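Contributing: when you submit paired examples, paste them exactly as shown. First protein:
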Amino acid sequence: ALRKQKNLLDEEKRTFELEKQRQLDKEREAISKKAAEEQSEKDKYKFAELEKKLSDTTKALEDANRKATQGSQQLQGEVQELDLEHALHEAIPTDVIEPIGKGVLGADIRQTVKTQRGNTCGTILWESKRTKAWSDGWITKLKEDRLRDKANAAAIVSEVVPEEVKSGMGLKDGVWICSPKLVVPLALLLHKAIEDAARQKFVSDRRQTDAERIYAVVTSHEFVAQVESMMETYNEMLGQIERERVAFEKFWKLRESQVKHLKSGVSGIMGELQGAAGPAFPPVKSLELDGA
């Protein structure tokens, strides 16, 4: 009985220890799982933080690269403008080549065409472009600049040209377009065309006949204004003369009445004297009848 009881106690002890071990394992597993979850949560936040830092760094690098690219493109565009200005100076030293300042409304460069003697013939506006794609909006803008500047011609210099100007030089919608390597030929052609047109106009003006000059004078607004002014003066003088004539006629009527009255009085006196003196009284010719 003691052995049986001992064995029962031993069995209960083993069962207790096994149960205790299972509980410990279960708690250990729970603790381990919880620790793993907590670590996973920490790792998750840490990973998100690292991703955020990486994204911010990438964005900053992209912004820096974009700014550097824009700065490089702007610098390249300014260098091309300087090259264009230098090329025009070298090709046509008699012309005035002046850059239009940044921020000022207008094209990039204004070329004033002059003869060898320094006479001004006209102007050409130049726009320099250095981009990867062509834009028809450049033409519209330059045409507005040409109208505002009253220029004779306008040209765009660009590495990229539209389909209509595949050869590298051509006219589109009233604006000349060329690649940088054809700037000088185009500048010389435009210079010659503007100078020839100015010379023809000068010669035509010199050949104008006297009749044409007289016609131009008598049909001008200035001549008409002068004639109208003269007619106003004439009408004013005529009115003054008429007013003076009326005034003088009134004065003359008065004098005539006075003279007649005086003459009538004298005739009466002379008649009385002649009646009293008889034939001895000498006659007064101015009082005698005509033919008497």
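Second protein:
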Amino acid sequence: RNNSGVYLRGIYEVQVSDTFGRELDSHNMGGIYSRITPTVGAEKPAGQWQTLDMTLLDRHVTVKLNGKTIIDNEPLLGCTGGAMWSDQFRPGPIYLQGDHTAVNYRNIVLTPIVQSKAVLFEENFNGKLDGGWSWLRENPSAWRIREGALEIRNEPGVAHNVKNALVRPAPDRKGGKFAIDVTVTNSTKPIQLYEQAGITWYNNGKPVFKLVKELVDGQIMIIPGRKPMTSEMVQLRLIVTSDSFVAQYRPNVEGEFQTAAEGKLPAPADDQVSIQCYNGPPNAEHWIRFDDFRISKLPD
């Protein structure tokens, strides 16, 4: 069975293999090897030319196979096997891998990316925090940066006295529509009532809105909206305008964003955005992992 691959930036393998008719798997044609499974099968039988259109922007990838989108702007949470190095922030080449039997390539074209949205700020947690952040009630022993993510211990507290809330100025909502994205992963299953982690919006120094993964009445939910959430990992997206919000989420960072709730926000006034966790248990270490934080301006 033919088996090859196209490595993006030298570290992420897009699988090239004879998998026509097989059940969906991350090792199928167009999948990110052992990382991301295509949402649909779009490969042709062996012996026919296949068309792969791959887009890599920062650490997010989109793959179209034979004209059909099979991976849509999914985050790449680590290098794949055969990577040239483990540093995900290092520039690298495209290279073609060969394994088992011969695979033919033709019409290789590289095209610069034209973004449909402008990324205003992106935090990759590459060894240290970028500028512009500040801490509320910092406890240095209860946060760390590890493997391209920020990890914060979920300590006791509530919204007005939360510890280790990482805060930065929010975009001016009078200037259009903006999205704040972050991926949240629980290292330990929540056990404390209202134990939570996610995004909090501050207005005039006060927390006025949150989009979080929270334990409520014995069930883990996305709040607002009380949407059940069973996965350890979820990508949160908060879309804001001058007077409104849309709270969205993607379990396991897969598929389309789902809308949890929509509503109104106070008028812009010294707005700040925070990633934080609180209501953690006092006698157990529950660490929350935050990664892929970005602020983007969306088309109006």
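If you have annotations for the second protein, write them as plain sentences, like these:
The chain has two domains: 3-99, 118-298.
The chain has a mean pLDDT of 93.
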